[in-house]
Amino acid sequence: MEKDKTLWRVAMLIPPLAVFGILVVWPLFSSFYYSITNWNGFSADYRYVGFDNFLQIFHDPLFTRAAVNTVIWMLAAVIVPTGLGLVLALLIDSQVPGASVFKSIFYLPICLSAIVVGQIWVWIYQPDWGLLNTAINLVTGGNSHFAWLAKPGTALYAVIAAWSWQQTGLAMVIFLAGLTAIPPDLIEVCHIEGASSGQRIRQVVLPLLRPATVVVVALGVINSLKGFDILYIMTGGGPFNSSDTLAMHMYNESFKKYHMGYGSAISVVLFLIALAIIFAYFRQLRKVDEIYE
Amino acid sequence: MFKTTRRALMVSVLASGLMAALPVQQVLAGGEVTISHYFTGDLGLDGLKQIFAEFNKETGITVKDSPIGHEDFKTGILVRAAGGNLPDVFSYWAGAKTQFIINSKSLHPIDDMWKAADLDAIVAKPIADGATLYNGHRYLIPFGYHYAGIFYNKKILQKAGITEMPKTWDEFKAMCDKLKAAGVTPIALGSKNRWPAQFWFDYLLLRTAGPEYRAKLMAGTASYTDPEVAQAMELWKQLLEAGDFTKTPNAYDWTDAADQVQRGEAAMTLMGTWITGYWNTNKFTDADYDFFEFPTVKEGVPRAAVGPVDGLVIAANAKNMEGAEKLLAFMISKPDVQAKWASIQGALSANEKVNPKTYTPVMQHALDVVKHAPAFAFNYDLATPPAVSEVGLSMFSQFLDNPGEVQSMLDQTQTAAAAAFKQ
């Protein structure tokens, strides 16, 4: 009987494992393999080049710029939605009028695909009739035609704003779930003891929101590492590579310059960075579990 | 009432088997050719559907079509090649891009088909020599080609009192000054996707250093730090600094620039003849626009024409090689098919049998210019290998944003281009 059960379990696991193997594990190992070749993506002829592609990374100024941008992207794409999500969650939890409507509105962007969000923000940033310049001109009475996505100084940050707009809703919902787990008695005690709102949030709510914060930050990091599509649709890494992240640089090298071997080497580096972050995340999760056990 | 006997079951199985076999038989009679291309505009798709239906009627071969948008096609076809999943036939740009995939042994040579269909007697010689021959073999049929000229809004030029089109660089600059005095930005440029800027570099280099030097630069035997390149960039810089271009070109697409000219916010734009297809569908007809050739900059330098050639190629591992060759021969050798396609795309046909009267007056003018040009050069991103053109196109965008730092940009471009040529 027990043997039958085991057989069934194995049989049920085979289809998802096969899909995972074909779509994730096989391409992953293929990338490792191609990263030590000079394959151009088209040719059947390519040769082993050892670690040349990895050494090239150290002489590639575009890689350095993309790495710096990736750090900026990850920090901003985590800090901004986490901060804004927390503020919104606290406001909605304080039972402001129309709280449930605001909750739905703020959550809505997360239901849209990154491509749709990117396109909406491309229109918002349009220099001549975009919402942003129109609003600025209305407020200041000026005549700004600033091209937010076409200037190297603002392109990356303009995409980060769009990304944060979408991700804030997710952070807000997780924080709201965390807030409901805080015992109401504890908040009542704060009131009875005469704690101010600031003291209550700083000394009671925020420490108790730590598990939710870990989840929000971890999801933020993982999502930001995957954040390629919105950048692709909004700037494509431009103007002139100024908003390239490592994922975008990998794409450009592989599919525009036909340097599939070098592009694979960048993807391996990106994979190792992601692995290190996820490893650190699981360690942190274990620590949080230990605190609450 | 009805009993399912074993015999009845067998009969029904046999009957359904026969019925199922019928369409299979039909498909086998003609076969199927798979094709992928970047002609995804409404008109282009409809036109191709009609052409494929005619091909099916004539040969019995079905064409299975999978179109992809122009920009996505550039990477989409590579992904299919990487997966060993190329269609039998696909559209591609003649020049360095085609050379690149030929060097990768991904294409099937069509010398025999070329001879059998007597394409030497059909395809215009300069296009046949420049666009179809690679490593001594024919690989591509030119499905249509374009010419890049300076397209202008007739009314705007008339309003500014311009009746004679400029023949020399000085006349061109004087024309720009006149337009600015009339309150119109002379030149619209939408370089958001980078490539629209390349025509300025192409023509300025061709008109100052000549086609031979330009061919050397494209092949990596000349340097971006040469005085010839610096001179071309300097002329471009002078126009930018004189305020002759629309502001922040990198924020706009080429269609935005075309719209600016149509609306009269700018007077002209340097673009390929596909702009005529775009304008015609926007109810801006050739009564409203025309073009003139890029002016002479240096006396004695041959006035080459610039443009891309859209081709069709066959994958080296095509499943239906015979059908694919038949399709290519059909596409190029039928003057009515070529004329229809040229009119839809705003392109010129490489088939010399196409009656020029089927073109609009503007396109007839373009055909005349190309016929009399001493050389036909592919535009930058089709003339130099993809890894190098990526570097150059980014440099053009950077230059448009900050023309003051052109020298350091050229130094960096040379370093990156030299590395790309080595790989």
From TrEMBL, chain B:
Annotated compartments: Periplasm
Superkingdom as given in the UniProt entry: Bacteria
Record's signal peptide: 1-29
InterPro entries membership: Bact_solute-bd_prot1, SBP
Keywords in alphabetical order: Periplasm, Signal
Pfam families: SBP_bac_1
Family, per entry: Belongs to the bacterial solute-binding protein 1 family.
Name of this protein: Extracellular solute-binding protein
